[in-house]
Protein backbone atom coordinates (compact mmCIF):
# COMPACT_ATOMS: atom_id res chain seq x y z
CA UNK A 1 0.00 0.00 0.00
CA UNK A 2 1.17 3.53 -0.75
CA UNK A 3 0.03 5.38 2.36
CA UNK A 4 2.65 6.62 4.81
CA UNK A 5 2.47 5.17 8.30
CA UNK A 6 3.52 7.56 11.04
CA UNK A 7 3.15 5.29 14.02
CA UNK A 8 4.15 1.78 14.80
CA UNK A 9 1.48 -0.75 14.07
CA UNK A 10 -0.44 -1.84 17.13
CA UNK A 11 -1.50 -5.43 16.64
CA UNK A 12 -3.49 -7.61 19.00
CA UNK A 13 -4.76 -10.93 17.70
CA UNK A 14 -6.83 -10.05 14.61
CA UNK A 15 -6.78 -6.27 15.11
CA UNK A 16 -4.29 -3.88 13.53
CA UNK A 17 -4.18 -0.10 14.10
CA UNK A 18 -1.78 2.58 12.89
CA UNK A 19 -1.70 6.30 12.13
CA UNK A 20 -1.44 7.85 8.67
CA UNK A 21 0.18 11.22 8.04
CA UNK A 22 -1.97 13.75 6.20
CA UNK A 23 -2.65 17.45 5.81
CA UNK A 24 -6.04 18.82 6.80
CA UNK A 25 -7.90 22.01 7.61
CA UNK A 26 -5.35 23.17 10.18
CA UNK A 27 -2.32 22.07 8.20
CA UNK A 28 -1.68 18.67 9.74
CA UNK A 29 -3.80 15.89 11.09
CA UNK A 30 -3.64 12.20 11.61
CA UNK A 31 -5.94 9.64 10.17
CA UNK A 32 -6.07 6.21 11.75
CA UNK A 33 -6.40 2.95 9.87
CA UNK A 34 -7.98 -0.02 11.61
CA UNK A 35 -8.21 -3.58 10.38
CA UNK A 36 -10.15 -6.15 12.37
CA UNK A 37 -10.85 -9.65 11.11
CA UNK A 38 -10.76 -8.56 7.47
CA UNK A 39 -12.85 -5.40 7.91
CA UNK A 40 -10.98 -2.17 7.22
CA UNK A 41 -11.81 1.32 8.44
CA UNK A 42 -10.14 4.71 8.33
CA UNK A 43 -10.89 7.51 10.78
CA UNK A 44 -10.32 10.62 8.69
CA UNK A 45 -10.68 13.49 11.15
CA UNK A 46 -11.38 16.73 9.30
CA UNK A 47 -9.61 15.67 6.10
CA UNK A 48 -12.18 13.54 4.24
CA UNK A 49 -15.82 14.01 5.12
CA UNK A 50 -18.85 12.20 3.76
CA UNK A 51 -19.47 13.77 0.35
CA UNK A 52 -17.16 16.63 1.30
CA UNK A 53 -13.71 17.55 2.53
CA UNK A 54 -12.37 19.60 5.40
CA UNK A 55 -11.87 23.31 5.01
CA UNK A 56 -8.55 24.48 3.68
CA UNK A 57 -9.06 28.19 4.30
CA UNK A 58 -8.26 28.01 8.00
CA UNK A 59 -4.90 28.60 9.66
CA UNK A 60 -2.30 26.33 8.10
CA UNK A 61 -4.67 24.76 5.57
CA UNK A 62 -3.51 24.10 2.02
CA UNK A 63 -5.85 22.81 -0.71
CA UNK A 64 -2.93 21.25 -2.64
CA UNK A 65 -1.83 19.24 0.40
CA UNK A 66 -5.42 18.32 1.20
CA UNK A 67 -5.99 16.96 -2.31
CA UNK A 68 -2.74 14.97 -2.33
CA UNK A 69 -3.42 13.55 1.13
CA UNK A 70 -6.84 12.34 0.06
CA UNK A 71 -6.07 11.16 -3.47
CA UNK A 72 -2.51 9.90 -3.01
CA UNK A 73 -2.98 8.40 0.44
CA UNK A 74 -6.56 7.69 1.46
CA UNK A 75 -7.76 6.77 -2.02
CA UNK A 76 -5.05 4.10 -2.21
CA UNK A 77 -6.97 2.16 0.42
CA UNK A 78 -9.30 -0.58 -0.83
CA UNK A 79 -12.75 0.57 -2.01
CA UNK A 80 -14.52 -1.35 0.76
CA UNK A 81 -12.62 0.48 3.53
CA UNK A 82 -15.15 2.19 5.79
CA UNK A 83 -14.70 5.95 6.23
CA UNK A 84 -15.48 7.55 9.60
CA UNK A 85 -14.98 11.33 9.62
CA UNK A 86 -14.67 13.43 12.79
CA UNK A 87 -18.09 14.98 12.15
CA UNK A 88 -20.90 15.32 9.66
CA UNK A 89 -23.56 18.01 9.64
CA UNK A 90 -26.16 15.95 7.73
CA UNK A 91 -26.38 12.98 10.08
CA UNK A 92 -24.30 10.54 8.03
CA UNK A 93 -21.99 8.39 10.14
CA UNK A 94 -19.92 6.49 7.58
CA UNK A 95 -19.15 5.89 3.95
CA UNK A 96 -16.51 3.91 2.09
CA UNK A 97 -13.40 4.88 0.16
CA UNK A 98 -15.05 3.61 -3.04
CA UNK A 99 -18.19 5.71 -2.48
CA UNK A 100 -16.16 8.85 -1.76
CA UNK A 101 -13.95 8.29 -4.80
CA UNK A 102 -17.04 8.01 -7.02
CA UNK A 103 -19.58 10.37 -5.42
CA UNK A 104 -17.77 13.03 -3.40
CA UNK A 105 -18.67 16.23 -5.30
CA UNK A 106 -15.39 17.93 -4.37
CA UNK A 107 -13.26 15.04 -5.62
CA UNK A 108 -15.06 12.83 -8.15
CA UNK A 109 -13.77 13.50 -11.67
CA UNK A 110 -11.73 16.51 -10.50
CA UNK A 111 -8.00 17.00 -10.91
CA UNK A 112 -5.90 18.87 -8.36
CA UNK A 113 -6.22 22.29 -9.98
CA UNK A 114 -10.04 22.02 -10.12
CA UNK A 115 -10.14 20.97 -6.46
CA UNK A 116 -7.84 23.84 -5.42
CA UNK A 117 -9.97 26.36 -7.33
CA UNK A 118 -13.15 24.99 -5.75
CA UNK A 119 -11.71 25.10 -2.23
CA UNK A 120 -10.36 28.63 -2.66
CA UNK A 121 -13.76 29.90 -3.81
CA UNK A 122 -16.11 28.36 -1.23
CA UNK A 123 -16.52 31.70 0.60
CA UNK A 124 -17.41 30.07 3.92
CA UNK A 125 -17.98 32.16 7.03
CA UNK A 126 -15.51 31.89 9.89
CA UNK A 127 -16.68 29.28 12.41
CA UNK A 128 -17.69 30.53 15.84
CA UNK A 129 -15.11 29.85 18.55
CA UNK A 130 -12.57 28.84 15.90
CA UNK A 131 -9.52 30.15 17.75
CA UNK A 132 -10.54 28.34 20.93
CA UNK A 133 -11.40 25.11 19.11
CA UNK A 134 -8.18 24.96 17.08
CA UNK A 135 -6.03 25.74 20.12
CA UNK A 136 -7.80 22.99 22.08
CA UNK A 137 -7.45 20.51 19.22
CA UNK A 138 -3.74 21.23 18.94
CA UNK A 139 -3.41 20.74 22.71
CA UNK A 140 -5.15 17.34 22.50
CA UNK A 141 -8.52 18.66 23.67
CA UNK A 142 -7.20 20.57 26.66
CA UNK A 143 -8.48 24.15 26.62
CA UNK A 144 -6.21 27.09 27.31
CA UNK A 145 -8.10 27.74 30.59
CA UNK A 146 -7.54 24.13 31.71
CA UNK A 147 -3.77 24.48 31.32
CA UNK A 148 -3.50 27.38 33.76
Protein described:
The chain has 148 residues and is of the alpha+beta class. It has one domain (10-147): Ribonuclease Z/Hydroxyacylglutathione hydrolase-like (Metallo-beta-lactamase, Chain A). It is 24% helix and 24% strand. The chain is built from four helices and eight strands, in the order E-E-E-E-E-E-H-E-E-H-H-H. Strands 1-2-3-4-7-8 form a six-stranded mixed beta sheet. Strand 5 (48-49) and strand 6 (52-53) form a beta hairpin. The longest helix has 11 residues, at 63-73. The radius of gyration is 16 Å and the shape is globular. The relative contact order is 0.15. Mean pLDDT is 81; it is low at 1-6.
Describe the structure in brief.
By secondary structure, the chain is α+β, with helices and mostly antiparallel strands. The protein contains 4 helices and 8 strands. Helix 1 packs across helix 3.
> How many whole angstroms does the radius of gyration measure?
16 Å
Poorly predicted runs: 1-6
**Strand content range:** 15-25%
**Known CATH architecture:** 4-Layer Sandwich
Spatial ordering of strands, largest sheet: 1-2-3-4-7-8
- Main sheet: strands, sense, barrel: 6 strands, mixed
Task: Write down the domain tally.
Answer: 1
Described by its quaternary structure, the protein is single chain
Question: Can you give the mean pLDDT?
Answer: 81
CATH superfamily: Ribonuclease Z/Hydroxyacylglutathione hydrolase-like
* Distinct helical segment count: 4
Could you give the distance between the termini?
44 Å
CATH class: Alpha Beta
In helices, the fraction of residues equals 10-25%
Q: Structural class of the helices, strands and pairings?
A: alpha+beta
Amino acid sequence: MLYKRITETFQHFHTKLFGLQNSCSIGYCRCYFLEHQGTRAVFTGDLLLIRGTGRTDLRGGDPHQSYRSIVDRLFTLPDETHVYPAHDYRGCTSSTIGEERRYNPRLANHDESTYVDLMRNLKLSRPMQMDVAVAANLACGESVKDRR
